[in-house]
Design brief:
Elements lengths: L2 E6 L5 E7 L3 E4 L2 H12 L7 H4 L4 E5 L1 E2 L2 E3 L3 E6 L20 H8 L3 H8 L4 H16 L4 E9 L2 E2 L7 H8 L9 H16 L6 E8 L15 H10 L4 E6 L10 H4 L3 E4 L3 E4 L7 E2 L2 E2 L4 E7 L10 E3 L6 E3 L10 H24 L4 H16 L1
Antiparallel strand pairs: 1-2, 2-7, 3-6, 4-7, 5-6, 8-9, 8-10, 10-16, 11-16, 12-13, 14-15, 17-18
Bound molecules: ligand EPS.
Length: 372
């Protein structure tokens, strides 16, 4: 089974990840992987750290002559800002961050908590996601994400294809498909910076080209929507995940909520609408998988909220260190990577083999069976 584990601290010397379960024979394009890491670093509203770092990973193992060997893939990232051993200790937990519970639970200084709970860890998750995207691409599966809301500013509602998302977000400073909304989002982030405040928002991820039947209806842990919700909620700052029309479904009649089934010789079974977000009964139904994630505003505030000094127990303002004002554009890139990982894992679970050749054979056989 596909699996990964990350190590490293935000200001440690290295961050690394081991990805196990990728078959042999997958082409590994390092320029593509490092391009994805650069995408994660971008977005209007990022803090000073991204000006210091130029994230890229090197291969530690599992790849020979630009192809996977089937062995665990090791990826290594060197932090330029590796000051963890000399950074001061922190005593005043930031409301909304891991500081308080993490410090009490692990019985250590907030510094150690902050270093590992930081969203910098997502650099490694994006590297993993990039490998998974390369894998999915081999089977015609494509993923794109975009920011749909920052604070109260949202895009006008419309369903877009992966290609449209990619075309319309090109060059956008906030990964937004609508230029007018983008301007309003940027003005709002500038206001947050001026007011020493932060902003959250929402992003949407769309995956196309999926076969019918990834996931399962027979076992709760294998439901693809449950897996997506789990991984997306593990993203730092995520507070809600919706599948398809999500919370809008609460106010619809059943007759308005569901996607009717059609059949044609060329398309096979299909739906004309996609309020289910491509998932029914915990399985992909052949339509695009659509998920939405809500991110809370960054917890590190330059105008800190009330807290308590954990040494003296006196009321004081929370500690502040350099941070982002809005990380939703970066969040949308991270979300793509997390979705790619879950889809690749589920794909491998269903069609798994040790080599790309074997998986291709299994996949083609299944497609023939479904079509027949
Ligand atoms: C991040 C790097 C961090 C933060 C941010 C994510 O850099 P530094 O702490 O050196 O400024 O900008 O971390 C957080 C949002 C957080 O809550 O910890 C990155 O590379 O994504």
């Amino acid at each position: 089974m596909l699996n990964y584990i990350t190590t490293g601290e935000s200001h440690g010397r290295y961050m690394a990840v081991i990805l196990e379960g990728m078959p042999s024979g997958l082409g590994v394009d390092m320029d593509y992987i490092n391009g994805e890491l650069r995408r994660r670093q971008g977005g209007f509203g990022r803090g000073g750290r991204q000006k210091i770092e130029a994230d890229y990973v090197e291969i530690m193992g599992g790849v020979i002559r630009k192809k996977t060997t089937g062995a665990p893939i090791g990826l290594l990232l060197k932090n330029k800002d590796h000051t963890v051993d000399v950074l001061p200790s922190i005593e005043r937990p930031r409301p909304g961050h891991a500081d308080l519970a993490g410090s009490l639970k692990y019985h250590q200084d907030i510094r150690a908590v902050l270093e590992r709970s930081s969203a910098r860890e997502t650099a490694m998750r994006v590297a993993v996601g990039a490998v998974c995207k390369l894998f999915l691409k081999e089977f015609g599966i494509d993923i794109a994400g975009h920011v749909t809301r920052i604070g109260p500013v949202a895009i006008p509602k419309e369903a877009l294809s992966v290609n449209e998302i990619r075309r319309l977000t090109k060059g956008s400073l906030v990964n937004c498909v609508c230029r007018k909304t983008e301007q309003a989002m940027i003005r709002l982030i500038e206001k947050a910076q001026k007011q020493k405040d932060t902003l959250g928002g929402k992003y949407e991820i769309r995956a196309e080209g999926l076969p019918i039947g990834l996931g399962s209806y027979v076992h709760y842990e294998r439901k693809i929507d449950a897996q997506l919700a789990q991984i997306l909620m593990s993203q730092q700052s995520a507070k809600a995940v919706e599948i398809g029309a999500g919370d809008q479904l609460a106010s619809l009649w059943g007759s308005e909520a569901h996607d009717e089934v059609f059949y044609s010789k060329t398309r096979g079974y299909y739906h004309k609408t996609n309020r289910a977000g491509g998932i029914e009964g915990g399985m992909t139904n052949g339509e695009a998988v659509v998920v939405k994630v809500t991110m809370k505003p960054i917890a590190t505030l330059a105008r800190p909220l009330s807290s308590v000094n954990m040494k003296t127990r006196k009321a004081e303002k929370a500690d502040f260190e350099r941070s982002d004002f809005c990380a939703v554009p970066a969040g949308s890139v991270i979300g793509e990577s997390l979705v790619a990982y879950v889809l690749a894992r589920s794909f491998l679970e269903k069609f798994g083999g040790d080599s790309m050749r074997e998986i291709r054979r299994n996949y083609d056989g299944y497609l023939r069976q479904v079509r027949a």
